[in-house]
Amino acid sequence: MKYQSLIALSCILFICLGCKNESAQMNPVLEVESVQTDPLPSWNEGNSKEAILAFVTKTTTEDGPDFIPEADRIATFDNDGTLWSEQPMYFQLAFAIDQVNVMSTEHPEWKTQQPFKALLEGDMKTALAGGAEGLLPILAATHTGMTTDAFEKTVKDWMATATHPVTKKHYNEMIYQPMLELLHYLRAHGYKTFIVSGGGIDFMRPWIEQAYGIPPHQVVGSTGKMKYEMVDGKPVLMKLAELNFNNDEDGKPIGIHQFIGKRPVFAAGNSDGDYQMIEWTTSASGYPRFGMFVHHTDAEREYAYDRDSHIGKLNKDWMMPPKTIG
Is residue 270 within 8 Å of residue 295, measured between CB atoms? Predict the structure, then answer.
């Protein structure tokens, strides 16, 4: 298998140690647009930055052998741990936990019903002991049984008020300035940027355009089933307590194919959940292709984690072949 332009092993992107500014911070997209000379000013000089600049230059030079037409310049980005932080827990889970507390007055049965009982008592270890399967009742209670409009309002209200337990920043401020610059740089050169995340699509769409400059229709995420209903004489979409599509691991290439319709030439992620997306992107023939892993190594300014992490585990990605140039 030939990887035409893959950053792996010897040239992994070190987002936490490899940037000049703070790792988790919010700067409006408009601030990025003020960049004039250096398109990636928060990035340290080195292999990662050089590889990105070289790739974009050669794929957008019309007379060059590696030119990619603008219609095929598709770039996909994981969200959790790639564009914004994901520690100490996925932020969508933090949202769900907060909603359990908000909704508990309407559900007195939760005082004796697990995992809700543990959440209300602040016993996170017990509440999360059941793993992904144990979280399903929490997600069902907080993400379904309402209209899509009602859920969107709930997400927006939460984003405006909830804060990270360590930094005390709003969650949509916990995004990476270097990655904002990369998104802007790609778009300035004719690339269309997409989010391809295991997170819920309805959770991401209400806020991602303001945060990243990516419109809601360019988000591919996990989805639940819905039902079209008439309520008070008006048509609505009701969110049902049943998973429709899990956009993680091998689901990511499937989601890209189904919802974007073109194979990316640029893909970025940070965990084993992104392995198949990057593998699928970089293994194709034809155009030059670029795969990138974000490795969190800065415990002082953000978090340091990889193989042993319970969130965003980066393990099998280390086995991907190193960069070769085709």
Answer: yes
The helix (run of H) or strand (run of E) holding residue 90 is: none
Q: Is the CB of residue 180 less than 8 Å from the CB of residue 27?
A: yes
Domain boundaries, the chain: 9-88+170-319, 91-161
Structure confidence by residue, pLDDT tens digits, 117-129: 999 998 988 888 8
Q: Are 219 and 192 in contact (CB under 8 A)?
A: no
What pLDDT digit, counting tens, does each position of 36-45 carry? 589 999 999 9
Q: Note whether 75 and 266 are within 8 A (CB).
A: yes
Rounded distance, CA 281 to CA 25, Å? 29
Concatenating the DSSP letter of every residue in 3-23 gives -SSB--GGG-B-TTTSBSS-S
CA 310, CA 188: separation in Å to the nearest integer? 36
pTM: 0.88
Structure tokens of 295? 């490795």
CATH architecture of 9-88+170-319: 3-Layer(aba) Sandwich (3.40)
Q: Which residue has the tokens 């400059």?
A: 213
